[in-house]
Automatic annotation (TrEMBL):
Monomer. Homodimer; disulfide-linked. This is Bactericidal permeability-increasing protein. One of its GO terms (biological process) is innate immune response. SMART domains: BPI2. The lineage of its organism: Eukaryota, Metazoa, Chordata, Craniata, Vertebrata. Its main location: secreted. The N-terminal region may be exposed to the interior of the granule, whereas the C-terminal portion may be embedded in the membrane. During phagocytosis and degranulation, proteases may be released and activated and cleave BPI at the junction of the N- and C-terminal portions of the molecule, providing controlled release of the N-terminal antibacterial fragment when bacteria are ingested. The N- and C-terminal barrels adopt an identical fold despite having only 13% of conserved residues. SUPFAM superfamilies: Bactericidal permeability-increasing protein, BPI. Keywords: Antibiotic, Antimicrobial, Disulfide bond, Glycoprotein, Immunity, Innate immunity, Membrane, Secreted, Signal, Transmembrane, Transmembrane helix. GO terms for cellular component: extracellular space. The gene is Bpi_1. GO terms for molecular function: lipopolysaccharide binding. Gene3D superfamilies: Bactericidal permeability-increasing protein, domain 2. It comes from the Eukaryota. Residues 6-184 form the Lipid-binding serum glycoprotein C-terminal domain.
Length: 185
């Protein structure tokens, strides 16, 4: 029998099973930690879409007519526990989310506008660069029919296109920067 080579550098071995990951997802979901309220002041200033009724003209032109240039808020939450699975070449997660949009009136009253359920699939392929572990995520989202509190209903197809574009332009680059930041030169 051969002896294993001695490591000259410290090393950490970490193993996470699907059970541990799904238990953590269940705990976060049950505790209500998978909720986020997004308002105009929580978005970066350089973000191309500001949360105002004027920005919704593409898919809900009636909002700008009913509430001219009013701020909006989004409430995002998980409808079900996220599901995580390990595949031979990647980690896969399914997120079941909802997004409810509100118009914020000058007296701070929040008027519900629409509720959209969104199921998203995220697959992260592990990468190794030098001594850094990272991942390259791929996203897919499926919005479900929206419940509208305004008439006519928002055009979900245009909202879906905007969502997919936003994920491609901002979601994936953000996830890549969070998952596997580039080492400083």
């Amino acid at each position: 029998p051969m002896a294993l080579p001695t490591a000259h550098e410290p090393m950490v071995l970490l193993a996470i099973t699907e059970f541990v990951a799904n238990s953590a997802a269940f705990t976060y979901f049950s505790a209500g930690a998978l909720r986020r309220n997004i308002s105009g002041n929580t978005l970066p200033r350089h973000f191309p879409l500001q949360l105002k009724t004027k920005s919704t003209e593409i898919f809900a032109p009636q909002l700008q007519e009913q509430y001219p240039d009013q701020p909006m808020e989004l409430l995002l939450w998980a409808r079900q526990q996220p599901l995580l699975s390990c595949r031979p070449d990647a980690l896969h997660g399914t997120l079941f989310g909802s997004a409810e949009a509100f118009v914020v009136l000058p007296n701070a009253t929040r008027v519900p506008v629409f509720l959209l359920n969104i199921d998203a699939n995220v697959t992260g392929k592990p990468t190794l660069s030098g001594n850094r572990l990272g991942a390259s995520p791929q996203w897919g989202a499926q919005p479900w029919p929206c419940q509208a509190h305004v008439s006519p209903r928002p055009q979900v197809q245009k909202l879906e296109t905007l969502l997919k574009l936003g994920l491609r332009l901002f979601g994936v680059p953000w996830a890549n920067s969070e998952c596997c930041p580039r080492p400083a030169p």
